[in-house]
Amino acid sequence: MAPIEFWFDLSSPYSYLASRWIGPLAQRHGRTVDWKPLLLGAAFKVTGLPVLVDTPLKGDYSRHDFARSARFAGVPYRQPEPFPISTVHAARGVLWLQRTDPARAEPFIHAAFGAYFVDNQDLSAPAVLARLTREMGIDPAAFAAAVQQAEFKDALRRQVDTALARGIFGAPFIVIDGEPFWGNDRQAQVERWLSGGPF
Amino acid sequence: MAPIEFWFDLSSPYSYLASRWIGPLAQRHGRTVDWKPLLLGAAFKVTGLPVLVDTPLKGDYSRHDFARSARFAGVPYRQPEPFPISTVHAARGVLWLQRTDPARAEPFIHAAFGAYFVDNQDLSAPAVLARLTREMGIDPAAFAAAVQQAEFKDALRRQVDTALARGIFGAPFIVIDGEPFWGNDRQAQVERWLSGGPF
Which of A48, A58, A71 sits opposite B47 (nearest CB)? Predict the structure, then answer.
């Protein structure tokens, strides 16, 4: 069966929450997860939508809901500041790992989410990415070099363009055999789609 | 125990879906529902957000998700056209019923949601509201007169202002003892809040 596509931005709280259940859920249904970083900033340019936490009224509610949704899921969460941040380097790093050291790509994604949303370390800071990679046995210098290479700049740009061309406008965005599900709160629908087929 | 506030717009698909479960859920927890119509158009002016279905990419997804979420919930749904519509007359009519014939207010709300989202009757049309009220034993002429009265124009305006002042920016919006929940997809959190208390 085809892998489940999991589109995410490492600066997206709901992507973080969904990153905690998508793997076990896929496994229960004999699927793997294709982890696909994107950049929400690029999507916002196309949809014309503002950054969530900058939206009047909705922004305040969202901060409350991030933390409550984490408690609901039993997942640790501390609201990071600054928020949101640029995840372009981290995302290119994911693509580099997926190409050169695939076994470490998914652990890096989980570590990066945890660094930002639990330990409140700024993933846009090179020093944070260096420490994170070093702790995982990834060469920090090679990581830092890769995220500046045209190959991975282009790869991420193409991936974001592909997402937008396919109507993927937010994160997390889950695609199962072509069926799109947007948001951490589509977990129950995703579960039923996998267990019972299309509805 | 205090009633559960259920803020809704009669032109909002997710409000319609939530209107089908909020009553039984409240009842299971010994609560009543305070049905509070608002106007999403006024909220969009404050948040600066566009109408959902007019948002690039997100609009197409949303139409797909309205129908799928209805199937998921086992609720009949046909995408109405035109969509969205002005619900200002219907909303004033709800306030009039709540003041003058409260036993018919909630049945009217369910009938109006069904008329629009199942039978695709345009609730902004006076003839549709006349037929709907007549079928329910409500005097259509009194209804039509009430929705033009300053008393109910003012009452709806005040209700929308109150919503916005309290940070209620969308629909459905559910408030339980001061705790805000936005969206049909917060059903599971609402359920847990009612059964287990704050989390």
Answer: A58
Distance, in angstroms, between B178 CA and closest chain A CA? 13
Provide the residue type at A150 as one letter: A
Give pLDDT tens digits along chain B (199 positions): 899 999 999 999 999 999 999 999 999 999 999 999 999 999 888 898 888 888 999 999 999 999 999 999 999 999 999 999 999 999 999 999 999 999 999 999 999 999 999 999 999 999 999 999 999 999 999 999 999 999 999 999 999 999 999 999 999 999 999 999 999 999 999 999 999 999 9
Most distant pair of Cα atoms in chain B: their distance: 48
Tokens of A180: 């799109």
Strand order in the sheet with A173-176: A33-37, A4-8, A173-176, A179-182
Q: What is the pTM of this model?
A: 0.96
Indicate the pairing of strand B179-182 with strand B173-176.
antiparallel
A5 secondary structure, DSSP code: E
* Prediction ipTM score: 0.95
Rounded Cα distance, A58 and A131, in Å: 35
Query: Do B56 and A65 make contact, defined as CB atoms within 8 angstroms?
Result: no
Of all residues in chain B, the one with the smallest CA distance to A170 is B58
Contact predicate B68/B98, CB 8 Å: no
Residues in chain B closer than 8 A to A180 (CB atoms): 61, 64
